[in-house]
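Exercise: predict the structure of this protein bound to 5-hydroxymethyl-3,4-dihydroxypiperidine.
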Amino acid sequence: MTRSTEGSLPQFPAGFLIGSATAAYQIEGAANEDGRGPSIWDTFSRTPGRVVGGDTGDVADDHYHRLEQDLDLMSELGLQAYRFSISWPRIQPTGSGAVEPRGIDFYSRLADGLLARGITPIATLYHWDLPQALEDAGGWPARDTALRFADYAAVMGEALGDRVAVWTTLNEPWCSAYLGYGSGSHAPGRTDGAAALAANHHLNLAHGWALQRLRDAVTNHEAQYSITLNFTGLEAVDDTSEEAIERIDALAHRSFLDPLLHGRLNERLVRDTAVVTDWSFVHDGDLEDIQQPIDVLGVNYYYTTGVRMWDGRSERSVDDGHRAAAGSPWPGSEHVEFIPPAGERTAMGWGISPDGLEHLLVSLAQEFPDLRLMVTENGAAFDDVEVDGRVHDRQRVDYLARHFWAAERALARGADLRGYLVWSLLDNFEWGWGFGKRFGIVRVDYETQRRIVKDSGRWLAALIAAQSPGT
Ligand code: IFM
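Solution:
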């Protein structure tokens, strides 16, 4: 049973963090300033035909130059936590070696600005903007990239390790591996299933090695460590669905959860992908390195979809919620069909299923009873309309309210959920979709860079204000 926005607001336990999230390339702009090197997203978005409308993150929300204003905005909304990502090429322009002090200074000011406003800083080290020089040297399918990432993690641990409360190594490594190297819909745009699987393993390895280096460098002994994964709800639609669910669950979720948290490869995944790779990129000792203790699992959830096996006769439905591209993000399981649920959809075409979030949080809590959970992203794109300086985004308010209520039900059912960060604070560069898809609770007028708090932003502020003191 899902509740609507009518009536009361959910109450969360003391210490529960309610806030919002962004990512560097999606908001910062200043792509060529202060020594920042090119990333794979600069190259990809500047390549004709890769991003809708030819949009790039060159300017985006100009957050790099509007830091103080955006910090004040967070404060006005009453955010308790803010999740940002650090642009690796701002810190190490070529992905290794010399550190750019102006890049460190920017994130240092960001962390200080958050703390000065009583907002908990949650930092993600990697949200998809690999330095181009590392892609030129092989990218994530190359093992060396994981070593370079660990070095970068140590640099950031030393620079911000006295201030960041939660360190997240990677954001949605599934997208980095399978959209970046499998379907080609994300940077660097390669379409090679075997490369995607190697990238999957090296991202896991990067996480494990980075955590070891981070823990050594960080001086805040209260700091927590995490990784954020993206989860898609999978539903049966016919009697072939069980097979389809197992295949997609293995590729989308088990490919990360099993090595990271159980220290093993998923057997189903290895079997289903045997047509593509022999997994010889996994070396002795890798799984021990990957399975590092973490404090919090970051959960990104947006939608649930039906899946079934394609019968080979009808036209295949391939709408898996990602932008159609030349390759497939499902190596070895290309014959699975995705059947989005009937009913309401967001502007991304994603079905709306708050119950999917409740189910996900409860099942993760059952599988990992000792792990804290945090919703590190949830939100929706809609075709907002600005009228007289207001955005009455009723659908987004409704979406958020129903998902927050789902989180509250999961808590009541025993999930150790510690926070909920709405995606996104600002309208921003939605990767292959460019600026056309707006996820913000604050509208950005890209011509003037004016920020307008949407009704959803006001709703989030009211939710935070309605929590009991001490929350
Ligand atoms: O905008 C993205 C974000 O960068 C990663 N998670 C999903 C969001 C919406 O597609």
